[in-house]
Structure formats: C-alpha cells, structure tokens
Design goal:
The chain is α/β, with parallel strands linked by helices. The protein folds into two domains: 82 residues; 168 residues, Rossmann fold, CATH 3.40.50. The chain has eight helices and 13 strands.
C-alpha cells in the first residue's frame, strides 16, 4: 500500500507511507517516504502534526505553551504527553534475575536541549541512520559498527578488466554487479541482560538492519530469526512476551544447524550465557551440554567477522557468538556506558 500521509488538523509535508517493501521501487527518487506497519499510520500522522505545530510556534519567536496549543487544535488525549528523563541500572549477570535492580537517575538535561524531536522514538518504522546520528541519538561507538558492516546494497559493483565491451568491440573491461553477503544482528534479551541495554539495543538494531542489509536474531527463552525481508514483523513492544526472557539452546541449535547461511559480519549483544549450556524452560525440550568445539561443528552459518558487545567484559566473547567459527573478532569496550549522560 502506498498513500500520502494527511491530517485533518494541519497541512503536513508531503511524505508517503508504504506498507509493502516491493512498493518502494515505485516511489520516484527524491520523494520522502516512511516504510512501516499499517498499525503505525495514525501515530506517524500525530508525530508530524506535533512537529508542524511545534516548529510553527518556534518560528514566531515568542514564548508559548505547547500543550495549550495542542488543546486549542483539538487534541484530546494529552494525558500521555510528557517528557521522561532516562535512567541507567546497576546490574549483575548471575544470581536471581527476579531481584529488583537498583535504578539511579541521570543528571538533568540542559533546558535548551528540550526539543520535541529529541524525545520522539518510534521503532516500528524505517528511520534514516544519518538523521539519527546528527541528532546524537546513537552512542559514540556507532561509527565502529557502521564501518564494519556498511555494505552498500544499492551500488554494490566491481570492475572486471577482462570483460568484453560491446561499444569498443574489445576486452576493455566493465562493471559487474555482485551479490553482497548479508549481515546479522544477534540480541540476547534474557533476564540477565539489563532491560535498559536490551530495549535500547532492540530499538537501534531494528532501524540499523534496514540500512545495513541485515537479518535479526532474537534470543530469549526461544530464538527467532527475522530475515531482512520480514523486518517489519519485528515488534519491539511484544518481543519479550513472544520470545520469553530465559536462555535458549534448542531453537538456536535448530536454526544454525538446519541450513547454510553466509554472513559478512555478525554483531552479537549479550553476556556469558551461551547455547552450549543445557538451559531448561518451557520452550526447550532437547537440552544437553554442548562444547564450543561441537557447537561450531553443528553450526552451518558461515561468518567472516564477529563484533562482540558483552555487557560486562571487554575481553570475553558474547555468549551466543561462541558457535560462529571465525578468528576475525572485534570486542567493543565499555559500550553499556552510553546509558550515562
């Protein structure tokens, strides 16, 4: 479906809404669009309405009460209209995961930074990575990830000097299009991972996967693979209930041993918990202890490089990367600190 986002309250900028990935190629180059699920259309319109009114009020140069402006325009459900300051959590990776973690409040944000665009987050749609980087939404280590997996799927070509050139009638070379390998994001959402880290990572990864031609692998009590073509089915709001917050072996093992997959870079977020341990939960029924060596023999997924995001260690491999057989490993240090101000 392709449709223009329209409002009955204000005139919106011309932005098209697309729910079918195949329809994207019908949009002329340069025309702005948002790709997402049908269910988010009304929310996108509301965000655009807020932004248009907010920017108009700012251009006036006068002080204004934005909530009052919204009420005068007919917005009724404003009880949820507020800004929240983020928190970070002290946590451990072992022990009773049901214990309540201690939460500490971050330093106050500066008054002049309180702009609407800085607080809008919607993970159900495609968001331009460059825009998010300019808004400083992503942490400083994003550039490390981007440099490692920035496959340009639109201009992926090689020059072959031995190709026959029809126009020149000779072996003068030419451009050959090649099929790039996909990348893979693997996120552990089990209870031992601090919720702040896993939820923020999920939101970031869903958006990054679109730009970096990547599949997404979610590991909790069970493991679910979301191929690049089906990323729109990854619902951040329901991911914890759908996959559970335990540790999986059975589903992970079935996925990696069932078929051959080729990945350029695998980016793994997790802690010491790994698929070789015989975890027991409602989803797992074939559990047994499996060594890393045997796990690598079972795994049919071929990986060129691993980028490891371990929540507590700068030198250990994130657990669910242990079955991927490659010596090309990069460890991201102190990445959880991005939750600090």
């Amino acid at each position: 479906m392709i449709k223009l986002l329209e409002s009955k309250i204000v005139t919106l900028p011309k932005v098209y809404f697309i729910t079918d990935r195949q329809e994207i190629k019908k949009i002329p180059i340069g025309i702005p669009y948002i790709y997402g699920d049908e269910s988010v259309e009304k929310h996108l319109i509301r965000i655009l309405e807020y932004e248009v009114l907010y920017q108009s009020a700012k251009r006036s140069g006068y002080k204004f009460n934005f909530r009052k402006i919204l009420e005068e325009k007919g917005f009724k459900d404003l009880e949820k209209f507020h800004f929240e300051r983020p928190v970070y959590m002290d946590y451990v990776t072992e022990g009773n995961i049901n214990d309540d973690p201690e939460c500490k409040e971050l330093k106050s944000l500066k008054e002049q930074q309180l702009e609407l665009k800085d607080y809008i987050r919607d993970s159900s749609v495609y968001v331009d990575i460059e825009k998010l980087k300019n808004l400083k939404v992503f942490p400083i280590w994003l550039d490390t990830v981007e440099k490692s997996i920035s496959t340009n799927i639109h201009n992926y070509s090689l020059y072959n000097p031995n190709m026959y050139n029809k126009k020149l009638d000779g072996m003068y070379g030419g451009i050959v299009l090649s099929n790039p390998k996909r990348n893979l994001f693997n996120i552990d959402i089990s209870g031992s991972i601090p919720k702040g880290a896993s939820s923020n990572t999920l939101a970031m990864v869903k958006n990054m996967a679109e730009s970096f031609y990547a599949d997404v692998l979610i590991t909790g009590s069970k493991t679910t693979l979301y191929p690049y073509e089906l990323l729109h089915e990854l619902n951040i709001e329901t991911i914890y209930t759908e996959n559970g917050m335990g540790n999986d072996q059975t589903w992970f093992r079935r996925l990696v041993s069932s078929e051959v997959r080729e990945y350029n870079t695998v980016i793994v977020f997790g802690d010491n918990h790994h698929p070789g341990y015989p975890w027991s939960n409602e989803y797992n029924s074939e559990n047994k202890s499996i060594s890393d060596e045997d796990g690598k023999k079972l795994c049919k997924w071929r990986v060129d490089k691993i980028i490891s995001f371990h929540t507590t260690s700068n030198t250990e491999l994130a657990g669910y990367a242990r079955w991927f057989d490659t010596k090309n490993i990069e460890y991201i240090k102190d990445w959880v600190k991005y939750l600090e101000d």
